Amino acid sequence: KITEVTKTTATTKKVTVPFEKTRFYIKAYYNVGKKYAYSGYSTGVSCYQQQLPEVTGYAVSALGSDYVKLTWNKMTSCDGYIVYKYNNEKQKYERVAKTTDSNSVYKFTDLFPATEYKLTVRAYKTVDGKEVTSGYHTAFYATTKPSVVSDFKSSSTTSNSVTLVWKKDTNAQGYIVYRYYSAIQKWVRVTKTDKNIESYKVTGLNAGTVYKFAVKAYITVDGKELASPSYPTTTGYTRPETITGITSSSSDSSNTLSWKKATGVDGYILYQKISGNWKRIALTTLNTFTVRNLKAGTNYSFAIKGYRKVNGREVASPKYVPYNTSTAPAVVDFTLTAGSKKATVKWNKVTGATGYKVYYKTSSDGKWIGLKTTDNMTTSFTKTGLTSGKTYYFTVKACRTVNGVTYNGKYIKKSVKI
After folding, report:
1. What percent of the chain has pLDDT over 70?
2. Are 52 and 91 in contact (CB under 8 A)?
């Protein structure tokens, strides 16, 4: 159907051309009263709009480290869109794809991480076998996210810290470290570094505790933080605290060690220094242990670490404080000889003794009375002023003093009648 567009008295006229191919005709006319008289139609002229409108409304709907998903305002009069990416080396746009539908979205893939890209889109329509496109096209700038951090793990731990390491990303500006709080089931930011480092030490942690961490690389684009699309996670285990409060009680063949209970441990590892080297001698779940088959009157060094089992691996205290102690001297063998209103005690030297203590009492169930403490060179003592015909009881204890602590040996008692 031919439809009138306009009337004019001139020989030229500017009309709006639709996107579809359109044929125009011209008729001459003159007025006859209130009516018009027309000539026949001229030969028709076909034409169409040479350019489509500019695509507008660019936005990023999804973004990764290797892709950008671009959207724009939909144009109803086109057959599809041609998407372009700017080639910085050639300094020109290159066609990436030509869509055959009117969906106003395209995903640019195989991009480099943390890189700015210059993108644009033209609408097109095929008329008479020719591609009619948008004329002017506005550039849209989009930056991909940094790569996901790789080789993320915990490298070393103490009782209150975990050191995290990862492979450095040369494109990153810095990193964001997170810690997972199971109580609120949420990742919480620990720190944001302003340097492209490859490790971070998380401090202020509890001893003997399992922690979960994550990390993202980031860059800053237009004042906003742009981080990796996802993050790797790792588990870090703080070591049990250093064992404290160690005490001991000794016999001539054993030493019973006790210590303060540690939190977050499955048990304790005991060490003994033998020939200058620390040797593991026992594993216990209690905070006390008796080391047996020791030599009388001998110095010993022990150490204790707390430990916990994590994924089948033993995680122990980072350090220990050596505890030095000694066994008590052996029982003293002595002879007891009566004299005139006196009694003489003689004994053999005991290995490791630094001195001897002589006691007596006037009845079998009486209280021991100290008579003399001698050095380790003295091996006899005579008690005078005793009553004839009366029975007295005597004993000798070996003693050993090491670093201000005195270890007393067991004793036997003997009686003599004056």
Report:
1. 97
2. no
Better-scored residue on pLDDT, 27 or 24: 27
Cβ proximity of 386 and 418 under 8 Å: yes
pLDDT tens by residue, 84-110: 999 999 999 999 999 988 789 999 999
Confidence grade of residue 47 (pLDDT, cut at 50, 70, 90): low
Q: Given the DSSP bridges, would you call strands 233-237 and 210-221 parallel, antiparallel or unpaired? A: antiparallel
* CB 38, CB 29: distance < 8 Å: yes
- What does the pLDDT read at residue 50? 62
pLDDT at 215 over 90: yes
Contacts of 366-369 with C-beta under 8 Å, sequence gap 24+, read 366/393, 368/395
Which DSSP letter does residue 142 get? E
Residue 400 CB-density burial (10 A; 0-12 exposed, 13-18 middle, 19+ buried): buried
Query: What single DSSP character describes residue 328?
Result: P
Residue-wise burial string across 51-88, b where 16 or more C-beta atoms lie within 10 A, e elsewhere: ebeebeebeeeeebbeebbbbbeebeebbbbbbbbeee
Tell me 159's DSSP state: S
Each as own residue / partner, the long-range contacts of residues 183-189 (CB below 8 Å, 24 or more positions apart, any chain) are 187/214
What's the CA gap between 373 and 79, in Å, rounded?
114
The overall average pLDDT reported for the chain is 92
Output the pLDDT for position 382.
Answer: 97
> Rounded CA gap, 389 and 382, in Å?
17
Strand order in the sheet with 153-157: 153-157, 162-165, 199-202
**DSSP at 134:** B
Radius of gyration of the chain (CA): 49
Q: What residue has token string 């002229």?
A: 45
Backbone angles phi, psi at 412, to 5 degrees: -120, 160
CA–CA separation, 151 and 166 (whole Å) = 5
**pLDDT confidence of residue 35:** 84
pTM of the full structure: 0.70
Contact 376, 355 (CB under 8 A): yes
Q: Are 158 and 316 in contact (CB under 8 A)?
A: no
Return the bridge partners of 196, or none: none
Q: Which helix (H) or strand (E) holds 165?
A: strand 162-165
